[in-house]
Design brief:
By secondary structure, this protein is mainly β. The protein has a single domain, classed as SET domain (Beta-clip-like), CATH 2.170.270. It is built from one helix and twelve strands. The strands form five sheets. The protein has a three-stranded antiparallel β-sheet with strand order 5-11-10, with no helix packed on it. A three-stranded antiparallel β-sheet has the order 6-8-7, with helices on one face. Strands 1-2 form a two-stranded antiparallel sheet. It binds zinc ion. Zinc ion is lined by residues 102, 144, 146, 148, 151-152. Zinc ion (ZN) is lined by residues 102, 144, 146, 148, 151-152.
């Protein structure tokens, strides 16, 4: 895979290269919240989709920036073992539009200053990509609209 991204927009098709993506992803209106990321082709289980683009910043700086970011969107990813975060609102790619679901089809791995996404199961072309945010800066106070049968109710 060369990381080509095809985004259909009305009758136009924009194609651009993103070195961080291994599969074509499409962004569009989500059935969960705001904008979502969708598979541009069928993708098998346990495949790396790519790295979330963004800027690595200190945890302190991240706390400042989070206050300015919209709710229910994962634009800031914290790391467990380091006082750093990835601000995905800058220099990012379609992976930042992966919404939370309590029954996700992708997994987010945070390691070595990278945020990687992997499929958990086979994904159909056009299927919305979701991941379990786990503990986020919303602290479980944001109502979850994922619609999964096992929805926990809050993010
Ligand atoms: Zn849910």
């Amino acid at each position: 895979m060369d990381g080509t991204v095809i985004i259909p927009y009305r009758s136009f098709i924009f194609v651009f290269m993103d070195k961080n993506l291994r599969y074509p992803l499409i962004t569009g209106k989500s059935r969960i919240a705001g904008k979502g990321a969708f598979a541009g082709q069928p993708i098998a289980a346990r495949k790396k989709l790519g790295n979330m683009g963004g800027e690595i910043i200190s945890y302190k700086e991240a706390q400042k920036r989070v206050k300015k970011q919209p709710g229910n969107v994962l634009f800031m990813v914290e790391f467990d073992n380091e006082d750093i975060a990835l601000d995905a609102s800058i220099n990012s790619n379609a992976l930042r539009y992966i919404n939370h679901s309590c029954d996700p089809n992708t997994y987010m791995r945070r390691a070595y200053r990278k945020v990687e996404f992997y499929t958990l199961r086979p994904v159909r072309k056009g299927e919305e990509l979701t991941c379990d945010y786990g503990e986020t800066h919303h602290d479980g106070k944001l109502p979850c609209r994922c619609g999964a049968g096992n929805c926990r109710g809050f993010i």
